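Final report, section 2: Outcomes. Of the targets proposed, Dienelactone hydrolase is the one most frequently requested by collaborating groups, and we therefore present its record in full.
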Amino acid sequence: MASNPPARCCTVGVKHEGTPTGKLVRVANKHDAYLATPPADKEHKGAGILIIPDVIGIWQNSKLIADQFAANGYLTLLLDVFEGDALQLNRPPGFNIMEWLEKGSDGKTPHTKEAVDPIVVDGIKALKEEYGITKLGAVGYCFGAKYVVRHYKDGIKVGYVAHPSFVEEDELAAISGPLAISAAETDSIFPSEKRHRSEEILKEVGQPYQINLFSQVEHGFAVRCDTSVKVQKFAKEQAFLQAVTWFNEYLL
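The predicted structure is given below as tokens.
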């Protein structure tokens, strides 16, 4: 693997303050999503971003991130890839995240690639056909990173991921466009050896890439950090700016 499977650290974090300004929509008449629309005077015509979230799904923090991308000119669709079965923040010790991934909370709603891939394809199709997006970027946090990497073949032109999990080496080697990564200094899911191996793969691929490593933060910082801690807030903000700058350079 280019990154390890999810673990409890994928569910731990802090809810951020703010008021989301987007709206809830349906994709393909069967998937929930959150749509953030850019101001008319800042809109990048035809450019849009698909956010594939971490296991917490559509919630306060991910909505605010979608709003931030929209404020920077990108129509942004945050997609529920868990069919309403996203996890709540801060699961207790002993929670079996792998069992949840394989079976879902009810034992019959798996969150495997066989289940998630078609949802992502529906999200890409909606952005292109319903919202007129011709230049598609994608953002993946933790769990979502795998599905950014997997779906360049379905129309993603440029990708950005933060603290990726569950990415296979062959998936990373198959990307067909630029990819940027934000990584945490402390991260058992994407540790130094996985970062270095990912760098080797990306160099072989030959597409533009960037890997930024942020000190004094842990897995999940780009979405769920404690913004009352200065170094965490700074890292989160810089990771977001990394993403926007990447899209501005390679998507527009």
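Helices lie at 60-71, 97-103, 113-129, 143-150, 169-173, 192-205, 221-224, 230-250.
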